[in-house]
Amino acid sequence: MTINYLIKPELNAVIATADGVLNFKEILAYYNDLLIDPDFQPHFHRIFDYRKVIEIDLSAEELKNIALQAEIGDEEKGKTVIIPNEGFSSTTIGKLYSELANSYRGRDHLLFTSPEEAIQWLGALEQ
Length: 127
Description:
Elements: E1 4-8, E2 13-23, H1 24-36, E3 45-57, H2 60-71, E4 79-84, H3 90-103, E5 108-111, H4 115-126
Helix pairs in contact: 1-2, 2-3
């Protein structure tokens, strides 16, 4: 599994999608790829569409490492959204929220059930 992303300058956003089992290696590769992408701007909002992710395989130590990686190049704060799989257990949702809270301190962040809701929230905050 890999995390694919699309940079949407008109939304000031990066939309990342993933499927299958989400693990540390893929998340780290995503951040590394994003940071060297010439179209990426640190102030862009981040939308993580995890509706097709069936499991999150991360240890507490890996979550800490992700948090450190997410802060690199993140001096300009945008908003961050995760759209989880509807079938996730409360434990998995907790891991996702933990990833959000720890990785994006200083950013507004929420969990949503659809990309449309997320984009609407991001747009409402822009006005």
